[in-house]
Amino acid sequence: MDNEDSRHKIKRHSQSPTSQDSSVTCNPSTITFKAYFFLFFAAIGSSLPYLALYYKQLGLTAGHAGILNGARLFTEFIGSPLWGIVGDKLRMRKIILFASLVSYTTGTLLLMAVQPQNQQCIKTEANKTEITPLIFTAGGTIKLGVDNQDKGFENHVSPADFTRKVDESEITKIFLIFLVIICTSQIIGSVVFTMPDALVVGFLKENVRAFGSFRVWGEVGVAGGSFLVGGVINFYQSEVCGETVKNYFISFYFFAGFNALAILTVIFMKVSYADAETSSEVTLLPLLKELLKFRNAVIIIVATYLGMLNGLHEFFGFWYLDDLGAKPYMLGVASGLRYTIAMLAYFASEVFITKFGYVCVIAASLALYVAVYLGLAFVLNPWLGVVLYSVQGLLYGTTWVACVVFGGTVSLRLGFYTVTQGKCSQYQFSLLIALNFF
């Protein structure tokens, strides 16, 4: 019933010419928001899918990768609503978003600075064993030590077994350094995902259902960025110690370039605030009361679980495909398809939500998620894994817009766009944090 009331309320208020036209006209504010989404998510697409593979190539375990991703999300869990309060109260959202982007970008690029120094390649052939140091170069490549390296070692003719020996204490040290870098940079960088959504909600106001037409440009960017980087990395791979190694520094370079352009768009963003009187009266107590209503609480619980499913897919999908034997170009195809399908979902989301309501959209997506994960549990062919990985983009796009519409509906009543959006994202990611720590 509340869902229907909200939809009718949105329709009644959508008479405002400004809110109606904001999603369809090519005014500067609309272009700026769409450009930001395109550039920032192109940066995400060029780095995030390959980050777990970068950890894996360094010698970190799946447990290490899970904790690092969980720590990043835990910091967002804490920092996002707090920075939202500061931004709403002090009317400095643009400054916070600018600083957050700089911090997030810097922290991610610092992950390139720490490389293993004590790894070895052990080659066993017939009755002969050779031990050669592995060198992680400053350019992101891996090669065999110069002292013992010869052509026969890399281009062997007879069958040989290769074992990569890592220094566990060194890996633990690298993991701890990465953990400190991520937590420190994310303290300020915790709103890079939530605040832009909140700014668009504030810009659209009652026409919040059109959010998908803005956010779809993020999927265009992330699909292009991921596909482009996957193709480039495919040209920079070699076989070392019986393994195919890739230069994942390429993904960091693209990440830095796209984010530098995204930071420039923040300067031209139009930021809307609630009226001064309303803003001074708003506190977190009404927000918490609204979110803890039975119906809203159920939606938050479901959104939390959806966040867990999406996060598992986002952070470990490539790891899973890599274990199935997917080639680098297959990972690029999977990522490009996934985000292209998500892009189409963003386009269609307004139609679905208008016709069925965001509750029905979330429920249907949850059921389809179950089917996708059951399929992933049994497939052995990497191409089938690519198909199921790609289908998840449809569910991600529709559920994200539905959750934003839910948060926007609440925030319009309270006038606290950034905090509400931060809280919704906070709940959505909370179970994912626990899962990643496992």
Description:
With 438 residues, this protein is of the alpha+beta class. The protein has two domains: 379 residues, Growth Hormone, Chain: A; 46 residues, no CATH class. It is built from 17 helices and six strands. It has a four-stranded antiparallel β-sheet with strand order 3-2-1-4, with no helix packed on it. Strand 1 and strand 2 form a beta hairpin. Helix 4 runs antiparallel to helix 17, helix 5 runs antiparallel to helix 10 and helix 14 packs parallel to helix 16. It is globular and about 75 Å long. The N terminus and C terminus are likely disordered.
Estimate what percentage of residues fall within beta strands. 5-15%
Low-confidence stretches: 1-24, 148-157, 276-282, 417-423, 425-438
Roughly how many Å apart are the termini? 39 Å
Biggest sheet overview? 4 strands, antiparallel
* The top level CATH class name of the largest domain: Mainly Alpha
Short précis:
Helices cover 74% and strands 7% of the residues.
Record keyword descriptors for this entry.
438 residues, alpha+beta, Growth Hormone, Chain: A, 2 domains, four-stranded antiparallel beta sheet, two-stranded antiparallel ribbon, 17 helices, 6 strands, 74% helix, disordered C terminus
Q: Helices, strands, pairings?
A:
Layout: H1 2-13, H2 17-21, H3 28-58, H4 62-90, H5 93-109, E1 120-125, E2 128-136, E3 142-144, H6 151-154, E4 161-165, H7 168-188, H8 194-204, H9 211-234, E5 237-240, E6 243-246, H10 249-267, H11 276-281, H12 284-291, H13 294-324, H14 328-356, H15 358-378, H16 382-414, H17 417-437
Antiparallel strand pairs: 1-2, 1-4, 2-3, 5-6
